[in-house]
Amino acid sequence: QVQLVESGGGLVQAGESLRLSCVASGRPFNGYAMGWFRQAPGKEREFVAVINSNGGLTKHADSVKDRFTISRDNGKNTLYLQMDNLKPEDTAVYYCAAGILEIPTMRPDYWGQGTQVTVSS
After folding, report:
1. Are 37 and 22 contacting, i.e. CB atoms less than 8 angstroms apart?
2. How far apart are the C-alpha atoms of 116 and 41, rounded to whole Å?
3. Among 8, 43, 33, 13, which Cα is nearest to 101's?
4. pLDDT 10s digits, 16-60
5. Segment 96-115, tens digit of pLDDT
6. Longest C-alpha distance within the chain, in Å?
7. Rounded Cα–Cα distance for residues 35 and 93 (Å)
8. Do residues 117 and 10 lie in contact, with contact meaning Cβ atoms separated by under 8 Å?
């Protein structure tokens, strides 16, 4: 089992930045691809970004490319999502996931509880 705890969400204005964190415990963190997904009200959960186990490969959804950056620190068992130039359409609950890399996305096996990001216009 892998336990995932997200933090860093909040309320910001359009154009501002946030950094989400996800701390993992349980099985070895560096054995998993890690990713971020999000779910807006009334919509299905969608892929945001994925990073492979050693951090050498990343993929981002077209909707966030050039604004969001996924990264990981295996020494700290922590996954990050740097979100710049936020837009109101980025408003969603953001979920951290651990699983298997399946380019261009991933197959999640474990989920965090989610953190709310709200962007006002």
Report:
1. no
2. 11
3. 33
4. 999 999 999 998 888 899 999 999 999 999 999 999 999 999 999
5. 999 999 988 999 999 999 99
6. 41
7. 14
8. yes
